[in-house]
Amino acid sequence: MQQLVTTIQGESVLLRPSQEGDAEESARVWTPELRHMYGGSATAAGRPTVESRRRGNEQMAASGEHHFAIEACPEPAERADGRYIGFVGLKVNDEEQSASYRIGIANPEYWGRGYGTEVARLMLRYAFETLGLHRVHLKVAAYNVRARRCYEKSGFRVEGVLRQSFQVDGEWQDDVLMAILREEWECMVATPISRAGEVVIRSYRSSDHAKMMALWDACGFEPGRNDAEVILSQRAADPRGLILVAEQDGQMLGTVMGVMDRGWGWVQRLAVDPERRRQGIGRSLTQEAERRLAALGAYRVVLLARRDSPAAVGLYRGLGYETWEPVVVMSRRLDGEEETQSGHQPH
Amino acid sequence: MTERRLRLRPHTEADLPNYVEWLNDPEVTEFTALESGGVTLEGEREWFAHISDPECRDRNWAIEACGRHIGNCALHPDGNGQTAGFGIIIGDKAQWARGYGTAALREVLRIGFAEMGLHRIHLQAFAGNARGIRCYEKCGFRHEGVLRQARFKRGQWIDIVVMAILREEWEADQCSNS
Q: pLDDT for A254-269, tens place per residue?
C-alpha cells in the first residue's frame, strides 16, 4: 500500500514527510527517559548521534510504513513555522487489513500537552478513512503510564498483558497490548450519543452513500461524476475536506460538504430533505461546517447560493453572510452543452 | 506412557513430502495462518534449507510417535534471546487427540527452559482452536489476552488468543508433578 497523502494538518500539529534538519533536532532534544519509554535503559550512558538518528529516520522511511514527521504549531499563525518534535508511523499488514502504530515525541517540552492524543486521532482517521483498515494495534511498556493514558483517550482498548516480556536494567517488565477496531473508531468519532428524536450532526461514512444520493436527488442536484462512494469517502477522509450528515433516529435529514483552500473555507452542496425545511437543519449544518473549517485554519467562509432561491439566500443572510461585492462569479461550460435556463446548480 | 512413545528429532529431507500433504489439507491448517493449497515440495525444500542454515536461530523438530513422523513443532527465539514463541502442527490426522501434542509441548518446554535457559515461552492460537488451547492450558500456559479480529481467514474475522508460560511457573509445575 503506498502512502496516499504526504501531509496531514491538525489543530496544533502538522504531519509531514521527514526532511533535512529533523535528525539534528531529534538528537539535540534526546533524553535517556525517551529511551526508557521504548523499553531501553533509564540509566545507561551514551546518547544517539545525528548520524544514528539520520539512519534511523531513513530506515523508518524505507521500511514501507506510512511515516510522518510531527511538527508542533500550537497557534494557527505559526503554521508556516512549525517545530519538529517527533515522528509517527503505521506499518500496514495488507492481508489482515491491520496496522501497528508507533509514535515518538522526542522533545520533552512537548510531553503531557495533548500532542500525542491529537496525532493519534489524526492517524486513526488516516488509517480507517483513507487507508480503509480494519484494525490498528500497538504494544507499549506497562510502566509507560503517560503513553497508555494517551492511547486510551484516543480510543485504543487493552487486549492483553505480556508478562515479563522484556528486561530493563536487570528487571523483567510487562508489555501491554492495545488495539482499536474500525467499528469502535466509527462509533467514537462519528456518532455523538443521541437521544430519541434528537437531531445529531456527524461526519459522513461510506454506509451513508445511498441515502445521501437519494437526498440529493430529492433536492434536485444534478448527478455528478465525482459522487461515487469511494470518492466521497476519500473526500470525507481528506484532512482539508469534510462531509457532514444531519440525522434523526437514523433518518438522514440533510448534508453539507466543505473544503479548505488556504485560509478560505468553502461550504458546498447544502442539502435538506424538502419535507424538513425551515426547521433549522440547514442552519445547524452550516454552523457545524463553519466550526470545523475554522478548526482547520479558515478565517473566511465562502459559498455560492442561487439568486432565485430566497430560502437559501435568507438562510445565509441570517447567519451573517453578505454578498461579496469585489467578487464576480464567472463560469464557462467545457462539455459543449447548451446552458439550461436554470443555470448551474450551486455545488 | 504416551511420552515414552514420543520423540522430537531434527528434520530430514525425507520428511518434506509429508508437509506438502499436510499443509495442503484444509483440516490440518484450519487453525493456522496458512491458507490451504499452494504448498509445494520446492517451497518445503527452501524451508528446510532455511532451518538447516547455522544462521537460523529457530529450533525446529519433527515429532515422531512410535517411530512414525506425525508433525512438527518449533521455538522461535525473539531478538532478546531470552523469550521465544512456540508453534506446533500435528499433520497426521489419525494421530489427533491422543495426547501427542501435549507430550511434544512438554518436551519443548523442558528444552526451552532447562537447556536453552529461556525466561518466557509464548504462543498465539486461533480462538476457535479449543483442542489446542486446552492442550496449552494443560501444559501450564496462561491466557494473557485476545487480539480481536486480528486475522481474516476463509471469509471471517478471527480472534487470536495470546498465551505464555514463565520459567518460574514451569519450574513450580515440575516440583508439583514429581
A: 999 999 888 899 999 9
pLDDT tens track for A181-205: 988 888 787 555 456 677 888 888 8
Helix (H) or strand (E) run with residue A51 in it: helix A50-62
The shortest CB-CB distance from A161 to any of B80, B145, B148 is to B145
Q: How far is A86 from chain B (nearest CA, A)?
A: 25
- Asked if A177 lies within 8 A of B147 by C-beta distance, the reply is yes
Of the candidates A95, A159, A163, which has its C-beta nearest B148's C-beta? A159
Q: Is B54 exposed, middle or buried (0-12, 13-18, 19+ CB in 10 A)?
A: exposed
With residues binned 3-state (H G I as helix, E B as strand, rest as coil), the percentages for chain A, rounded to 5, are: 35, 30, 35
Chain A: residue whose CA lies nearest to B123: A162
- Give the orientation angle of helix A310-318 with respect to helix A281-295, to 10 degrees: 50
Task: State which CATH number among 3.10.129.10, 3.40.630.30, 3.40.50.1100, 3.40.50.2000 fits the domain covering A192-318.
Answer: 3.40.630.30
Q: pTM value?
A: 0.68
The answer as to CATH 3.40.630.30 being correct for domain A8-185 is yes
